[in-house]
Amino acid sequence: MAKRDFYPALFDLSQDIAGDIPVSLLQAWIESPKTAKAAVKILEPTKVTGVSVSSDSAGLSTLSREKGLIEVLAYISQPKEVVFGLGKAIGGEGIGIWAADNTQMFYPDTISVDTILSMLVETQKRIASYPVHIGIGAHYGTFYRIGGGLYGVEADFIEKIAEEDTKGGEIVVSEHLIEQLQHSTLFQFTEREDGHNAFSKLFRVENGPGNPDLEIRDDHYPIPYSEDFFEDIRQILPQSQRRQLALLEAKYIVQKVVVLIERERLEEESLEVEILNNLSFDTLMHKTAQELLALYQGEDIKTVSSLGIYVFDEASSALAFAEHFQQKLLQDDGVRSKVGIDMGPVIIFDLENGRKDIAGSPVNIASKMAQDKGEFGHLYISAAVAQKTKPEKCTPFTIEVSNITLHGFVR
Known about the structure:
This protein is of the alpha+beta class. It folds into two domains: 46-247, Alpha-Beta Plaits; 253-410, 2-Layer Sandwich (Alpha-Beta Plaits). Helices cover 40% and strands 27% of the residues. The chain has helices at 15-18, 23-30, 36-43, 60-66, 69-89, 113-127, 153-164, 175-178, 227-235, 242-252, 271-296, 315-333, 361-372, 383-389; strands spanning 47-58, 93-94, 103-108, 133-146, 149-151, 171-174, 188-192, 202-207, 254-263, 299-304, 307-312, 337-350, 356-359, 379-382, 395-401, 404-410. The strands form two sheets. Strands 1, 2, 3, 4, 5, 6, 7 and 8 form an eight-stranded mixed β-sheet that branches. Strands 9, 10, 11, 12, 13, 14, 15 and 16 form an eight-stranded mixed β-sheet that branches. Helix 5 (69-89) runs antiparallel to helix 6 (113-127). The protein starts with 14 loop residues before the first helix and ends with a strand. The relative contact order is 0.13.
């Protein structure tokens, strides 16, 4: 369990360190008694009720091995445009920045669940003809809307369902959502027994009415790209002309070493205290990165919740940074972390708010090694990075994840 004496480091906090988290929220928590009652009062204005819908692409690992980065981004953009366009048409809004293949939409409780579910059925019908399919998870509940994101156990619950327990073309909904349907007989459900259903029973939507008349008027989902790049990748499909792809690759792709760090989440007896303590640690993680990146000549791409992504030109600098970061986080704050490092072609995007985002296979590989298969307290190095750095005191590993085999070293 982490220490609780970190708060003085967050006084006089600036917005560039806090990121999308409101400074006023963190300052209120820092200056409060830090009790469950105080946490509830601070978070009360951020509470929202409605439906959170998350999606995740299927078969992306296989596609990434067959296609180049630009082409993969074009393919995964297609379903995201439909998810956003149809969702916005009924009054939903995009949550976060959709840099990877995941999406998240929020529908306030002023929109009927029947309308939302029909829209989701229609979404899967329209995506069915695309090369990339998606799995969708939907849950009706109460969330905390902070800095453009949704927080709380209910938000985490449905995101995990979408990412880990859905297949392409599938819609999985919680029992809480079904209870909100006004005309549940219009839809057919089958109870799922293989999902994370400790929080709620899960059901697969087997059949139900779509909404073929629903019109997409805005398909510009919360993109991490410039408008020029967004239009460029839309132009290459469905023909995918090799010459055009080569030009775009030369224009946008850079070679980088990617360091992905996930810290251990704090667990508290009170949900509200847990959220505020974790938000504070997220900010401290970003602040620690800023201090160390100057030493190792790296670039901070983003800190989202307990996850940080950083890039370097040299593999040796990336490894040294990761080791120092991991040690400092443990020694100063009592927090363990797990790290994944890979290298290769990526695209780095400048966002409108002055921040950045990233896409590319090294990000996915680092994530699979550390987040999907890794354990806290360890550092995972891909075979490509190990060849450049010759790390000491490491153990070779081979893992199978998402139908691909990864080789590397761990310590």
